[in-house]
Amino acid sequence: MMRNIRIEVQKILHLPYLLLGVAGIIALCLTATGDMNVGGSQISIFSLMIRPEVTNTPHTAFELWRAGIGGWLTVFAPMLLTLGYMISLSGERQNGQIRFALMRSGKLRYCISKVCGGALAGGIIFLIGYAVFGLLMVIRFPSLNTLPVEEQEFYLMGSTLAAEVVKRLIGAFLYGMMGSLFGIGVAIAFRDKYMLICLPFMINYIYQQVLGKLASDCMVAEKYEKITWIEAMRPESIMNISGSVTWLIPFVVMLVIYLVLIGVFYLSMKLSTVQ
User: Quick count: other Cβ atoms within 10 Å of Cβ 139?
Assistant: First the structure.
């Protein structure tokens, strides 16, 4: 089984798909808001990199690394993370390779390796992209250690910088897995290439808008406890690793959804005409 999963990950991380995914993640991180000007307009991290004079507020690499999870990243990430997966699965269906794969490994093993491979590949792509983005921040901006101890505590919350970086990288891998849910689910349900490209983006966009509307309504009604749970259901919230229930539940939900996808994929294989 592990060999099958490894092969699937290698297929999805074919160099062109890997480079496109990583470059896209880096570019989208740079579009996130790094600061606000006096007029209240957003200043992107990319603008801070090339024109630091646009703001008088000093920024550190760690601060902007954390801020990179925002902007257009949360909208387009699912499509970038699963592009290789969708192309791979679509190609196997069209050229008939899926028949030989099923003969070698069986339906259940094939479905498990496909879904697990897609999830792991998504995690790896986002981890690499986010790590490279972090290196760019380290090269361009001063370290968090240059701030007064009181300001460092604001970002580290009693932890150390090394520990927070490790937690952030693990969180990036988990976010890549979480963000891949949309694309993997669509690839299992649909075969049309245009649907495969557009639907992950559309589903994720609608999902984010619904959460935003629910949070806004709760804010107006002053139901702040509900807002905490609504924000916890955003895919990017899984990056804030902790032992709290608001982190554990989305993590468990992600695992359950992946199990459901394996079951749906297996059922579709059983009902299909492919033998």
Answer: 9
Please list the pLDDT of the chain residue by residue as tens digits (275 residues): 788 888 889 988 988 889 999 999 999 999 999 888 777 788 899 989 888 777 777 789 999 999 999 888 988 888 899 988 888 888 888 877 778 777 888 888 989 999 999 999 999 999 999 999 999 999 999 888 887 777 777 778 778 889 999 999 999 999 999 999 988 998 888 877 777 778 888 888 898 889 889 988 898 887 877 888 888 888 888 888 877 787 888 888 899 999 999 999 999 888 875 44
What are the Cα distances from residue 144, in Å, to 31, 34, 57, 147, 165? Answer: 22, 15, 14, 6, 12
Going 200 to 202 to 205 to 210, the CA torsion angle's sign is negative
- Amino acid at residue number 9: V
DSSP 8-state class, residue 147: S
* Element at 42 (helix H, strand E): strand 42-44
Burial of 224 (0-12, 13-18, 19+ CB in 10 A): exposed
Q: Give whole-number Cα distances, 199 to 27, 57, 82, 95, 184, in Å.
A: 21, 40, 12, 23, 11
- Read off the tokens for 232: 């916890």
Provide the token pair at 151: 């300001």
